[in-house]
Structure formats: C-alpha cells, structure tokens
Task: structure prediction
Amino acid sequence: MTETMTEPEKATPRRSVLRGASGAVAACLVILLLVVLGSQIFFQLQGYPGFGWAAVGGHALAAAIGVLLQRAADRRAGVVSALASMAVLVDAAVTLWLFWWS
Result:
C-alpha cells in the first residue's frame, strides 16, 4: 500500500437524537433511583420516615424498565428503536408524575 492509498472507512452506526435523549433519560432514572435510595437510608438512620420503601421499589422498577427499553432501542433499528426510545420517555414521565408531582 502506498502513502496515497487509504483504507476504506468502516460504516458507523447512525445515531439519532431521540435515542440519545432517551439514553440520557434512562441514565437519569438510575441516578434518581440512587438518590431516592440514599436519602431513604439516610432518613431511616436519622429516625425519620423518608420517602418510604414502596417509593424506592417503584423507582427501582422504573429504572430497570427504562434501562431495558433503552437497551432494546440501542440494539434495534427503525420503528422498534423509535418506539423503545419513546417508551423510555413515557416511563420517566409516569415515574415523575406518580412519585413527584401527584
């Protein structure tokens, strides 16, 4: 191979804004779970009720669903990826509505 010849570029998978946004939201669901769990443990040690273990379990379930949906969005293409990404956003919205806004 001479210096002027180059190797063909490998095709990189196309990333979408929706999939990137849903990945960030899924990561935030995990961070929110860790914050709620940490504050529950802290408040229990201080003798206060805190959020409650049901809320911690709900956040854990929402984070697990969000991560699994994001994994499906990252491994699939097309409509399935878009629907999984949208489902992550809906999961986060439902979690915020049930545990923080209602």
Notes: Helices lie at 17-46, 53-75, 79-101.
